[in-house]
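[agent] plan:
  1. take the single chain provided in the ticket
  2. run structure prediction with default settings
  3. attach structure tokens to the ticket
  4. add a short note for the reviewer (M.T.)
[agent] executing step 1
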Amino acid sequence: MTTTDELRASTGTTHQITMFADRLIGIVHTLAQPSLVQLVMRLALAVPFWRSGINKWDGFLQLKDTTVLLFSEEFMLHLPGGPYHYPAPAVFAFISGCGEILFPILLVFGLATRFAATGLLCMTCIVELTVPDGWPVHITWAAMALGIMAWGPGRLSLDYGIRHALGLPKDVY
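[agent] step 2 finished; step 3 output follows
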């Protein structure tokens, strides 16, 4: 084979590889529709907070005794010079329990989505200060919350449906 023939053969192979890669990218684009990705992010962020929140309650607006005990005795804020006990542990337990129920519900339905994601991002920061060794999980929660805050809930949400029904301009969806 001459150098020209070798060049043509390698160019043909490169072209085939490029075409195959383009087909794969097309499949990924088809499967990973932005609205589907936004829905999955909302659900993935909602689940751990819901599971934690549901375990804090003994009835309607009635915290379990163990919840308040955890915030009083076990949980500590790891700040410089600390760790420190939570101030007003019953209040923090109540606010935490309410947020861990309300924000996931809003996320699942895609209602006030950016507000809910912001709330869960703030809670994630507090959780990180309480359990600093959990940062590998906490950073994924923060990334999902930031993604939802940045790109919104997507078309599969009540936020989108309400804006559409009212004829409001579409936000970043």
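[agent] step 4 note for reviewer: The longest strand covers residues 57-59.
[agent] ticket updated
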